[in-house]
Amino acid sequence: MATGPNVGVLIEMVERGAYLEAFDRCYAPDAVVQENDSAERTGIDTLIANEKAVLGAFRSITGRALASFVSGDQAVIHWVFDFVGHDGSLGRLDELALQTWRDGLIVHEKFYYDPAQRPPR
């Protein structure tokens, strides 16, 4: 399965706010995700639990991809996420996601961003 079309599916899902569904559709059961140099999170259940916690910490999160690049089983997506806190506060996270895909699913993903821009939860 070609990586390129699957990256497009992931982008479409995130941009329409289907964050949790994207894990079921685009991540391997044993996927590993890491943010900068933080500890890795492993396994789809752990990834979904983390995503639920993030989504619950904000009134809304809107994501959009500014660019994506695919080479073989590697992809990079330049994401910008806008956050609205439960108190109405605003935040923005500009990040790069480096992904390794296998058999049409993400098996490893690492996010790179300046931690100072991370919205408080």
Keywords:
six-stranded mixed β-sheet, single chain, globular, 6 strands, Nuclear Transport Factor 2, Chain: A, alpha+beta, about 30% helix, about 120 residues
Topology:
Blueprint: H1 3-15, H2 19-26, E1 27-35, E2 41-42, H3 44-56, E3 58-71, E4 74-85, E5 90-102, E6 105-112
Helix pairs in contact: 1-2, 2-3
Describe this entry's structure for a reader.
The protein has one domain (3-117): Nuclear Transport Factor 2, Chain: A (Roll), CATH 3.10.450.50. Helices cover 28% and strands 48% of the residues. It is built from 3 helices and 6 strands. The chain has a 6-stranded mixed sheet. The N and C termini lie far apart (37 Å). The model has no long low-confidence stretch (mean pLDDT 94).
Task: Briefly say what this structure is.
Helix content is 28%, strand content 48%. The chain has three helices and six strands, in the order ααββαββββ. The chain has helices at 3-15, 19-26, 44-56; strands at residues 27-35, 41-42, 58-71, 74-85, 90-102, 105-112.
